[in-house]
Structure formats: C-alpha cells, structure tokens
Amino acid sequence: MLTKLAGGRLYDPANGIDGEVRDLYIHDGRILHHPPPGETPGQTFDLDGKLVMAGAIDMHTHIGGGKVNIARAMLPEDQRAHRRNRTASTRSGGGHAAPSTLAAGYRYAEMGYTCCFEPAILPINARQSHMEMADTPMVDTGGYAMLGNDDLLLQLMSEGASQETINDYVAWTLHATQCIGIKVVNPGGINAFKFNARTLDVDEQHPHYPLKPRDIIRTLSRAVAELGVPHPLHVHASNLGVPGNRTATLATMAAAEGFPIHLTHIQFHAYGTEGDRHFSSAAAEIAEAVNRLKNVTIDVGQVMFGQTVTISGDSMHQHANHHHAHPHKWTCMDIECEAGCGVIPFRYKDKNFVNALQWAIGLELFLMVEDPWRVFLTTDHPNGAPFTSYPHLIRLLMDRSFRNDQLARIHPDAAAMSLLGSLEREYSLYEIAIMTRAAPARILGLTDRGHLGSGARADLCVYRPSDDAERIFSSPMLVFKNGEVVVEEGRITRPLQGTTQVVRPEYDRAIERRIGDWFDRHHTVRLANFGISDAEMAEGIGSPVEVHPCRPRSVT
Amino acid sequence: MSALTLRLRECPRQRIDLSGFTSDALAGKSLADIQALPLWVGNRQMPAGDLFIIHGHDSDHIRIESESDRLDGIGSGMTRGSIRIQGHAGAYLGRGMRGGEIQVEGDASLFAGTGMTGGLLRIGGNAGDFLGAAIPGERRGLRGGRIEVRGNAGERVGDRQRRGMILIAGNAGDYCGSRMGAGTILVLGQTGANVGFAMRRGTILLTSAPELPPTFNDNGPQDLSVLTLLAKSLPSPFDQIGERGTRVQRWLGDLGHGGQGEVLAWPPLT
C-alpha cells in the first residue's frame, strides 16, 4: 500500500533539507519522494506543517547485557516504583533507572527512537545481550564488542603480533559476537585492576604486560579502520570521573594517531583540578581539541539530576567510587576473566557542587563543540541519567533562557565556576536532527537510516511544533517503523520486534586456531560453542541480523 | 454512617490487589464510583463491584469479609481510618502503612507490615514470613508503628527493622530479628534458630531461652527497671511480662555486625 505524508515540514540534514514543506510517500517500508507511476495513496496523513524527522538513533545506551541485568536485579524497588501496566497491545514492565527490556523498548518508541545500540557487549556475554535486546521491542538494536582488557589481545600485543593478526582477531570478534563496532573500556585498566593496580594512566605501563593504554588505543583504532568497520573505535577513556582527567582524555585522542576514534561519555572525562575543591570544568579545552581533531567524535554522557544507577565495565573506577552508592548497595565483579563490571546506584543532586558542575560540563561540551555531526546526544543511559530525560536535555540545548533558569537553581559555586551562563548558542531543530538522526546513522554506517531520502527505510516520526522543545520530543504525534504506524500521540499502537545491525569485515580464518587454543586452555566454553550464528540470531534469539557494508579506510 | 463493607463474592483463582482500597483513596467517592473502581485480578482488571458485594458509606471505616487468603496489599500506604478484616488477609497487609489501624481476625500471609512507618496492625491469627521485614531491594524493615500478632509468626520477623514494635503472643520462626538496626520485638512463645542473626542494634525480648548464633556474648543476668515501664505501656496479653519481673538474662550481638543489639530473656516461670 502507498501511504502519503502530505505537507510535513521536513528536517533531513543528511540531504540538506532544513524545514522545507514537502510531501513524502511510503511504499513497501521505504520512503519515496514521488509516488510510483499509476499508484494512488491508500492512506494519507495530512501533516499541515508538523515536523517530520527520521527515526531517532541512540548510539550509546545500556539496554542489554550482563551489567544491566545486575542493575535490574539489584534495584527491585526501581521496578516497583515505576510500573508500566499491560495494555491491549503492550506487555507489562517497569523501572526508571534500569528499565525492563519491554519498558525500555516501548518508551524509546514513544519518544520517536527506532534504533538503539548497546555499547558494552562483553564477547562472552554476547548471546545474553542479544537475547535481552531481542526482548526489547519496537527498536532495532546493535552492539559494540568490548576488547582491550581481554588477555588474548594483551598477550598477542605483548608477543609483538603483527597488525594483521590483531585485525583478524578483531574481525573474528565482530563475527562471533554479531556486533557492529568495537569498544574499549579503560584500555588495559580493567585488566590491571586484577593485578592490584588502582589507576592506569594513558602512558603508564600495565603491571603485567609490557603495554601502555596508548598502545592498545593505537592498535585497536588502526584495526577498526583497516578492517573498514564504519564505526570508529568506541573509547571509554582512562581515568573515568577522576579530577584532572582531561590530560588523559587529550592523550587518548592523540593515541589514535589520526585514525578515527570516538570518545564516549566525554563529560566524565573533562575534569580539571582548579578551584578550592580541586574539581573544575575542562570542557573548553576538550571542546577545542575536538574542534581541531577531525578524526575525533564524541558523545556527551550528560548528567541529569535525580536517581539513577551507574553501570560500567570499568571496575577499576567503579570500585573507587563505590562509597558514593545511593542507595548504599553496589557490586564490582570480574566476568569470566575477560573484563569487569561495576554497578553502583547513584543520585545526582543539583545542590551538590560536583554533580552540579558535572551537569554544567556536559552542557558546555554540547555548546562548545562546533560541529553537530561530531557530537552525539546521550546521557550514557543510565549512567548520567535514564534515556527518558532526552526531551528535557534537548530543551536545555535549544532554549537559552530555560537553560539559564536551570543554571540559577544549581549549587551556586558550581554555577560560578562554569562558562555555561555566557554561552549563547541555541541548537536549532536542524542541529538536533543531525545529532540524534543523521550523524549517528552516518557514524555507524547505516546508509538507509537516519534520513528521509528516497529509498531510505521508512523509520520516521512526526512531531507537533511547540515553543517548548521538551513537549515536542517527549510525545511524537506519529512514529513509523518500517513504514507502519507504531505510535500515535505518544502511545504504542502496534508492537513489533526489531532486527540486529552488524558488520562483517573479512579476515583470515587461520586466527581461529590460535583463538581455539586459547579457549581450550583458559575459557569455560569451547570455541565451537562461542560464536553466534545467523540462524541462532533469527530463530533462537529472535532478532535476525542485517549486515551493513564495511569500507576500509586509512589515516584521515 | 455504616462502615463501607466489602464481601467477596467468590474465592478468586488469581490474587486480587486491594492496595488502592484505603480510606485515603476512597474519600469523597460515591458507592457507584467505588463499585466501578478497577482492581487487578492476576493480570487483568475487573470492577470492584464484580468481585465484591459492596455496601455502606463510611470509607473511613472499611470492613472486608473474606474467606480467601488471596486479597493482597490491604491497607497499603494508608495514613488514617480503620480497616477490619473478617477472615484472612493475603500478602503485603499494611505495606507502607503510615497511620490508622488495621485489624484482621484470621491470618495474614507473607510480608505483613513491611515498609510500615506508623499506625497499628493487629493480626488475630497467624502471620506469615517476613512480618515487619524489609522486602527484597529495601534497606529497612518496620520503621514505626506497632504490629500485634495473637498467633504465631513465620520466619524473619523484623528483618532490618529500624524502629517501632512487633509483639507476638505465639511463636516466631527462624531468624527472628535478623539484621535488625533498632526497634523492639517481643515474643511470648518460642523462637526458632538464629535469633538476632546479624543484628546491629535493637532489642529482642523473649520468655524462653533463645537459640542464638555463636556471635552473641552472654552478659549474665541484669536487673532492668525499664521493663516495668515497657510492660505498663503494652496492651493485653503482652502486658503479662510485667508479672515476670525485671531480672532478665542479656546477650549482646551480633558481634560480627557491631554487637550493639540485645537479646533479653526472662527465666522460665517456676
């Protein structure tokens, strides 16, 4: 059937369309700009100047995998306090900081999101992570496999293995775990924690392996680029949350040596040591570096005030912060000797100097990084705040007077130490569409998403215009997924299951012998039982794969 | 005005969530409104009037007549008024109660009085496990108010209790007063194994020799005149401790957790 969206105001940055009123057609789940010859629309939506954007893409949100489940289990009160009852078409769920799979999927769709990426899939947990994401309705999913603290990579690097060997191992990991990118968390640091190190700076030698975090970043970012994986190496840098960590963040950017690198939740890595409390914003310095280094992209990891739970693979720094747990319960654990995990419930308070400054630093970064194509809107759900706070965050970016009102309410010393009040920039709808749609699609290599061009997948949403951006984005009038209306007036009308987005770089299968030996000696499973096949994804796990092309690159 | 009375039409196959049926929530509602209130029965909702025969007007005094033990959450979060249950109550009776009074003639099931911060909860029959305890995920059990049980209570009475008083005329199960932080538990009957396991502070009063974890220190017999005052403040039959005098055996523990909790036991009556 042909569906016509008549008279919508289109925001499609990938195709340079900024608020033009145009008709769109949907046919066979794809967007068309002109109806196919001889077909008349079977259904017409008269949009009369409503805002039309592609479905939003969250490129960094913890919605599946071991850590999230630990958080869910640790916080039954979060589930009890935020219940979501079943309706005729949706199932029950709940949770605010650590929502259940169903609640997360529904809420994402109700905000106009159609694609979400879990950024921290430990290879050994990949099957469980994909099962959780398959259970997350309404959205397409994907994940980044975590490397850089696994002993096999560190062993290979210590032995002086060639870059080709590392590339093969990285590519094999992507195949075996059905992932779309590679992430490294506190490079080498989680591993060093097991050798009793409590810090590991970018140029500090690992206590066991003759390696520095800098080597790991260089090797992995080069591997990802040479394999042609569209998404740059996704880096959770060293010294998470440590005052003065700006130097480590700048060193991490430099360590990529020109290869594409994505620094995630950079707000947690943009701290100085100035002032009486030895905690200050280094957002200006970090933003300047991002503006200068074109191989660097970032997502912010904005902090919002309220109760949440921090979940990170960075057991080293989660352990250091465990005494801040609120409510006071926490865990740090090793997972099959591959990496770590720390889960710490946390309440960000606007009257707390550090939390207030964290909030301001995130907004400073958003406003001082000039190119919206290289900064992504995240709260690092749920670490900075649950993803449900995105509409509020968008309003903070788009509305300076609202932002200044909020600034007046935070801890006065933090407000005084922040540049935020002097920043006049207000994001436009076009720029919001870049950072939540076009740019994530581009950086993940999703060519048929995040835009409204002819032939694009018909994942799109229609918002009612308003002066209040929070109202616009918290409740879309219509959301289409694969050309079908799935949300009307912010309520699910048609539940559906998504697919899993993956990439498949080529590699030399000879690496599997080395990996197999390693598995036989050290792992709890055999290599043959480790990888996840396409058939298992489709039938067992219930989320069929969609393969996106690779495009080998070199230094930019 | 006559008490608002609910009589269960037939024993439900699924559990009924009655947590919305408090004086606070029903204030100002007409009988027709109340009959139309949707209640969760298992995983579906039904109007209250289909499940109960409802009559009476005074929503400050609610009476529930039920032979079923599947009516959960009665009196949840109530701040005032009274609820009287002729028959049994299900799980989560008086959960998060802040004030008012609940009286059950029969038994109450699991988790009665959990999260309670005030008010009076009287159970005529037996209480299930986790009476006045912390439910999973919570860090505090009873935080105020009083729970009285005429029959026996199950295991983990007052787990993580923080304040308030739990009085049990019959026996209590294993781990009575486990992880207690403060407050008072009185058991007139027998107690099970590991009384006061992992308690930090608080008082457990017993009339029989306790089975304590090895991490409790015997302080020998003590003369505590405060017991006279306590006995005078208690209703019947709990005031009978006044007849036992003020000399009790005292143990301090749990030494693995600070050891400031006390277990007091009167010598057996001769």
From TrEMBL, chain A:
Naturally occurring in which organism (per UniProt): Thiorhodococcus drewsii AZ1
Annotated Pfam families: Amidohydro_3
Signal peptide: none
Domain of life from the UniProt record: Bacteria
Entry's Gene Ontology molecular function annotations: hydrolase activity, acting on carbon-nitrogen (but not peptide) bonds
Protein name: Formylmethanofuran dehydrogenase subunit A
Sequence ranges assigned to domain Amidohydrolase in this UniProt record: 43-487
Location of the region described as Disordered in the Swiss-Prot/TrEMBL record: 79-98
Lineage: Bacteria, Pseudomonadati, Pseudomonadota, Gammaproteobacteria, Chromatiales
TrEMBL record, chain B:
Domain Glutamate synthase alpha subunit C-terminal: 82-207
One GO BP annotation of this record: methanogenesis
GO molecular-function term, one example from the UniProt record: transition metal ion binding
One Pfam family in the UniProt entry: GXGXG
Listed InterPro entries: Formylmethanofuran_DH_suC, Glu_synth_asu_C, Glu_synth_asu_C_sf
Coiled coil segments of this chain: none
Keyword Ligase listed: no
NCBIfam families hit by this protein: one_C_dehyd_C
Descriptive protein name: Formylmethanofuran dehydrogenase subunit C
